[in-house]
Each structure stands twice: as structure tokens, then as C-alpha cells.
């Protein structure tokens, strides 16, 4: 595979090689990965609304020493250069391929990118204060994985691939190291300080049981009594009386399926009134609620619908128990953890930013 053919796959493979790290996805060599609770950092800025139909073509970053040295922001005593912002924008365009942007939209994008760079820089400074370190061997391990995936057998081959994108091996190593540092500091300051209790999971289930049970299956039968056409309310009353009479036989213990075959005015009557296997959410809320209020083997009194009067019988129903409940609890734990993580991360980032001196000169 030629180096030119390697370029389109380099950034996505770098994503896989650096999975689990916490720099925002627009940072060079970092793709769109789903953040994990224990390792996520500041969220990536959303792409701006397109302003024109022509696609944006990523531009090669300028090599001017003046651009590289121009300081556009100082975070405490740490400088951010215009080159870093240009680099971030170039890779954002490469990965997201937005349509052409007007001057205002591009300015807004660059403002958001700069804010994310600042936030990341503050986290790195916090990692330094916490004396968090990364071994060279850890960086090399990540780098070796990436080189294998782009079929670059030697460092020289990999450098040549990077050079065609205006990058250097040293800059890639630095970004890998920064990712690991951010991952570790957010783990220490955020992930390790939150937990989800069983009581919180129980409360979530109690408050969201109906939503959680959506999709669970049940089997039911019915007997339908239609009002006589043209009789108005008299026709409906006659249908109700029939339903009451048959319900009396149900209460006496007569087989529901047999009664359905004899009395139901619905085509399902020939099948003993079977509605088949249903999923929660498929029937109208009123009818479904009436059926699911029954225990398996129970039958309902007459219930009026737009069609007529029904008697319902519940054969079986799945409940949120056993393996289904265990899976639900696991998912709920993840949901609650994510909520707590996001809240704690936002609180921590706000705190360390407020304690930082930030001078934007752009």
C-alpha cells in the first residue's frame, strides 16, 4: 500500500489506537470515539450549521515560523499559538467534512475550538500539579499499535506518512502523552469520586417502570360484542348487556377460548379470541393498561372501545424480572453513572477554569 493510499485511513486508525483517551475528537489524530465514563473529558464542539453547498477542502497547515510563534492565548503561564488553532481547525475539517462556511460561521467554529484547547490545557496543567506522569514505554506502545494499523513498519515510514499531512512524529507522541495525562487526571478528579447505589437504581426503576417495560411481550385473548348498526345508544347498550352475560359465564369458570368461539363478533373468535403475541406499546394505552392490569389467567369485565365492548383475558406476560431485570439494572447503572460523571466533570472543569488566569489575544 502506498503512502498516498494510507492517508485516508490514518486518522480513523489513530482513533482506534488511542481508544479510551480523553482529548476532544477534533484534536489532530483523534477521531470521533464514544467517550467512556472513566476516561471522558470535555465534549467536542458541535459542527456549525452549513452556510453553502460547496464542501470544504482541508488546507495544509502553514509552516511560517511567525505563525507558529504567534501567541493567541495565555493560560496561566502556558502559551497557545495560532499554529495550534489552525492545526485544530484543519483536522476538524478533515474529520467532519463540513460544507463551506461563511466568515461568521468559521469565526464561531474557531472560537469553540480555542475554548476546547484552553480547557484541555487547563487539565494538562492540573495533571502536572498532581504530579501525574506517563512513561515513554506507554507512549511507544500506543504509537506501535497505530503504525501497525497503517502498515508503516518503521518509524521512518510513519514519519513520511505524517509529513504528507504536515505533522511530525514528535507532535504525534506529544498528543498521545497528553491524552493519557488527561485520561488519568479526569479519572482521579472525577471518575473515582462518584458511585451509583442500589437504592438509586431502585428509585429509577420505580419512576420509569412503564418506559423500561416497553417492548416486553404478552399474550391475550378477547371477545368482541359489536353495537347494532343504526341503533345509536340503544345498540351500544344491547352490546354491553351481551358482554355482561358472557362475563358472568367467565366468572363461573367457563373456558374463555370456548366462549370466544361461540360469542365473539370478531374474526379472532374462531381462534378462541387469540390476539397472538403482542409487545407493550402496540395497543392503545387504555386497552393495554386494562389487559396488563390482569394477572395471567384472569379476565376483565366489559370494556368499551371505539369498536364495541370487549372482554379481555391475559394468557401470559413478561415482567421486568430475572435476566431482563438484571440487564435493566446494569443499563440503569450506566445511565446514572454517566449523568453523575457529566455533572461532576462540568463542576470540576468550571472550578479549575475559575482558578486559572486566561488571557485571550486573538
CATH topology of the largest domain: Triger factor/SurA peptide-binding fold
- The best one-word shape is elongated
Number of helices: 12
Rounded to the nearest angstrom, the distance between the terminal CA atoms is 42 Å
Rg result = 32 Å
Poorly predicted ranges (pLDDT <50, ≥5 residues)?
Answer: 1-62
Helix content: 40-55%
Described by strand count, sense and barrel closure, the largest sheet is: 4 strands, antiparallel
Write the element-wise H/E pattern from the N-terminal end onward.
HHEEHHHHHHEHHEHEEHE
Which structural category do the helix and sheet elements fall into? alpha+beta
Give the gist of this structure.
The protein is an alpha+beta fold and 362 residues long. It has helices at 3-17, 65-69, 82-96, 103-129, 136-149, 155-163, 169-189, 198-213, 232-251, 256-263, 285-292, 322-354, and strands spanning 71-75, 78-81, 217-225, 274-279, 303-304, 309-317, 358-360.
Amino acid at each position: 500500500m502506498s503512502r498516498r493510499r494510507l492517508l485516508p485511513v490514518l486518522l480513523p486508525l489513530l482513533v482506534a489506537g488511542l481508544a479510551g483517551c480523553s482529548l476532544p475528537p477534533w484534536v489532530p489524530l483523534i477521531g470521533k470515539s464514544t467517550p467512556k465514563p472513566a476516561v471522558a473529558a470535555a465534549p467536542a464542539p458541535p459542527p456549525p450549521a452549513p452556510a453553502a453547498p460547496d464542501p470544504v477542502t482541508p488546507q495544509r497547515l502553514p509552516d511560517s515560523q511567525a505563525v507558529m510563534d504567534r501567541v493567541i492565548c495565555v493560560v496561566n503561564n502556558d502559551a497557545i499559538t495560532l499554529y495550534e488553532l489552525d492545526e485544530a481547525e484543519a483536522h476538524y475539517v478533515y474529520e467532519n467534512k463540513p460544507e463551506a462556511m461563511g466568515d461568521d460561521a468559521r469565526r464561531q467554529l474557531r472560537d469553540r475550538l480555542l475554548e476546547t484547547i484552553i480547557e484541555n490545557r487547563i487539565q494538562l496543567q492540573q495533571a502536572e500539579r498532581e504530579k501525574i506522569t506517563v512513561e515513554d514505554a506507554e507512549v511507544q506502545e500506543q504509537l506501535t499499535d497505530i503504525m501497525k494499523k497503517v502498515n508503516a513498519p518503521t518509524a521512518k515510514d510513519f514519519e513520511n506518512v505524517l509529513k504528507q499531512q504536515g505533522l511530525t512524529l514528535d507532535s504525534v507522541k506529544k498528543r498521545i502523552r497528553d491524552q493519557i495525562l488527561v485520561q488519568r487526571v479526569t479519572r482521579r478528579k472525577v471518575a473515582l469520586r462518584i458511585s451509583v447505589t442500589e437504592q438509586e437504581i431502585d428509585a429509577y426503576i420505580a419512576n420509569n417502570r412503564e418506559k423500561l417495560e416497553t417492548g416486553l411481550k404478552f399474550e391475550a385473548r378477547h371477545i368482541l360484542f359489536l353495537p347494532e348498526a343504526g341503533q345509536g345508544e340503544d345498540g351500544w347498550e344491547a352490546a354491553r348487556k351481551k358482554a355482561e352475560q358472557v362475563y358472568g359465564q367467565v366468572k363461573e369458570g367457563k373456558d374463555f377460548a370456548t366462549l370466544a368461539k361461540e360469542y365473539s363478533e370478531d374474526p379472532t373468535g374462531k381462534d378462541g379470541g387469540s390476539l397472538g403475541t403482542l409487545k407493550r406499546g402496540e395497543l392503545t394505552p387504555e386497552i393495554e393498561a386494562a389487559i396488563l392490569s390482569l394477572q395471567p389467567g384472569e379476565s376483565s369485565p366489559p370494556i368499551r372501545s371505539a369498536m364495541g365492548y370487549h372482554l379481555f383475558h391475559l394468557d401470559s406476560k413478561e415482567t421486568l424480572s430475572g435476566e431482563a431485570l438484571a440487564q435493566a439494572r446494569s443499563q440503569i447503572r450506566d445511565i446514572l453513572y454517566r449523568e453523575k460523571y457529566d455533572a461532576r466533570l462540568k463542576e470540576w472543569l468550571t472550578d479549575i477554569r475559575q482558578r486559572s488566569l486566561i488571557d485571550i489575544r486573538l
